[in-house]
Amino acid sequence: MAKTNEDPSGGLHNVLAAGTVLTGTIITESDFRLDGRVEGEINCKGKIVIGPKGSVKGNIMTDNAEIFGNVEGSIRARERLILKASAVIKGDIFIQTLEIEPGARLNGSCTMSGKEGNGAPVSSHPNAANNQKR
């Protein structure tokens, strides 16, 4: 069952424990840790951590994410996405900053936006600015 824990810093964190399956939509204003399984959407206005045994079949929208487990669906991280060595992602990711540890698997496309905040993608061509005729 989902529960709320208060840490010593005073921040609230939501936890979906191992062995728990939730079908539906999760919307939270605070950080969220998933060690169980979610079949549906997650919208987190904080940081989501998907533990090594955690899994999501659905789309995730969050500020920051750290993935150890499995995600089948798209991930939109407004700030940072960290894929740990045990992470398996089957879907597209839309991020500003990406960290991938060796061993992590990503089967999908990656779209990175610039820091300008306008949502415009950053060019993936290193010589895009130098495409001038000589």
SSE arrangement:
Elements: E1 2-6, E2 12-16, E3 21-23, E4 26-28, E5 31-34, E6 37-39, E7 42-50, E8 55-57, E9 60-67, E10 70-72, E11 75-83, E12 88-90, E13 93-100, E14 105-107, E15 110-112
Parallel strand pairs: 2-5, 3-6, 4-7, 5-7, 6-8, 7-9, 8-10, 9-11, 10-12, 11-13, 12-14, 13-15
Antiparallel strand pairs: 1-2
How would you characterize this protein structure?
- The protein is an all-beta fold and 134 residues long.
- The chain has one domain.
- 0% of the residues lie in helices and 54% in strands.
- The chain contains no helices and 15 strands.
- It is globular.
- The model is unreliable at 5-10 and 116-134 (pLDDT under 50).
What features would you highlight for this structure?
134 residues, single chain, nine-stranded mixed β-sheet, globular, six-stranded parallel β-sheet, mainly beta
What can be said about this structure in brief?
It contains no helices and 15 strands. The protein is mostly beta strands.
Mean pLDDT rating: 84
Tally the beta strands.
Answer: 15
Low-confidence stretches: 5-10, 116-134
Rg, alpha carbons: 16 Å
Query: Structural class of the helix and strand makeup?
Result: mainly beta
Oligomer: single chain
What is the element string, with H for helices and E for strands?
EEEEEEEEEEEEEEE
Count structural domains.
1
Strand composition percent: over 45%
Morphology call: globular
Number of helices: 0
- How would a crystallographer describe the biggest sheet? 9 strands, mixed
